[in-house]
Amino acid sequence: AAAQSRYVAINPFSKKQHERAIESLPGGNTRTLLHTSPFPLCMKHGKATFVWDEDGHKYTDFVGELSAGLYGHSHPVIRTAVLATFDEIGLSLGSTTTYEARYASLLCQRFKLERVRMANTGTEANLHALAAARHYTGKRKVVVFNGAYHGACFSFGGGEAAPNTADKGDFVVVQRYGDEEAAAEARGVIEETAKEGDLAAVLVEGMQGAGGCLPGSTEFLSAVQEAARKAGAVFILDEVMTSRLAPNGLGQELGLSPDLVTLGKYLGGGFGFGAFGGRKEIMDSVYDPRVKGSLAHSGTFNNNTMTMCAGYAGLNQVFTEEVCVQFRKVGDDFREKLNGVAKGTRLRFTGKGSLIGLHFREDGTLESQERVDLRDLFWFEMLEDGFWITRRGFIAMMLDTPKEELDRFVDAVSRFLERHDGIM
Ligand code: PLP
């Protein structure tokens, strides 16, 4: 309560702005995740790896736009690409362009896809991948996992707002995710659903991102892939969040060979983006208009030049395979340091590389009850120390965050745990 009172006292603009906003926006904004009680902070601008709120406070940006902000704010390479697109090309030409094909080729090469198609968000990428799987198999049902988040209309438990799942009846949810027991349950569910004769796809994340940065084991993911194959279902790996974790995506690192992969987030260079692709046999047979009975896939902004050029510049010039490998290590080291200072407390840091979940749990194990009160206290107090993280405890690191800021955060966490020793 004391931390919340201080928050209210030092953020009068954000408070007033929220009161204004709810007169036209239910909840005060259009992203449920961003609603934080008693009111969300209203940011004013960002530069490199920092953001400033409307009340004048400066923060190290650990929200990283939920992983879409990999490059930071106004990265010089992205800025150059954006200005050149605006000045010399135009935003949307109502036609195919070389920029579209150029980016498609880079995405295919980088993420080992035989074919790819563009969309505007990760949600759309998954919608289209499911449509492709359904068209290809002529079936409808999709096996997914509890705690999964595949986009705005595809959340399956685990979230804090009510699940908002499209076509609820078409999804069969495996209750566990990630380990050996989950693999056994998944095998059973996949076999059983296939037996009923209507299984189109199995959709899974290599690490549950919104579910708390919980990696699936290689054995689990391979077992799910194998069961999907055996059942004749399309195996779709959602790499919207995880493609940044390894040079060719997390799936390649784990030795998986998904039929389809979905992409998004930072790959738009900071603009809305989604893409889906994979095996030629599926993609061509479903989408090539020269193939009889092919499926339409439209979208006014699918190949807009701004995203095609900004995304390409980022992946081609900034987040190269070498940089990706180094960045993975920076993230892993950071998480290790955080877990070092949290040892013996209720706090745990999970994840892989630059994607980190923080968890306050009753007895310090992930299986025990979540302590939302401690997580909230942490959020308020980290703001006071100048760190912008998501209220639910997700950190998506930016590429160029100075090492001093990472160290300063480890220090702030350590001081937080000492300060509240009695309840940690
Ligand atoms: N899939 C995963 C794994 C995600 O984490 C997200 C977004 O957080 C999405 C899909 C949806 O992407 P978007 O928000 O661009 O629709």
UniProtKB/TrEMBL annotation:
Tell me the protein family, please: Belongs to the class-III pyridoxal-phosphate-dependent aminotransferase family.
Origin, by domain of life? Eukaryota
PANTHER family to which the protein is assigned, alphabetical = GLUTAMATE-1-SEMIALDEHYDE 2,1-AMINOMUTASE (PTHR43713), GLUTAMATE-1-SEMIALDEHYDE 2,1-AMINOMUTASE 1, CHLOROPLASTIC-RELATED (PTHR43713:SF3)
Q: Would the keyword Transcription regulation turn up in this protein's UniProt record?
A: no
What are the alphabetically sorted keywords of the record? Pyridoxal phosphate, Transferase
Name one molecular function that GO assigns to this entry: transaminase activity
Taxonomy of the source species: Eukaryota, Fungi, Dikarya, Ascomycota, Pezizomycotina
**Keyword Coiled coil on entry:** no
Q: What is this protein called?
A: Pyridoxal phosphate-dependent transferase
Pfam families linked:
Aminotran_3 (PF00202)
Q: Which cofactor does it need?
A: pyridoxal 5'-phosphate
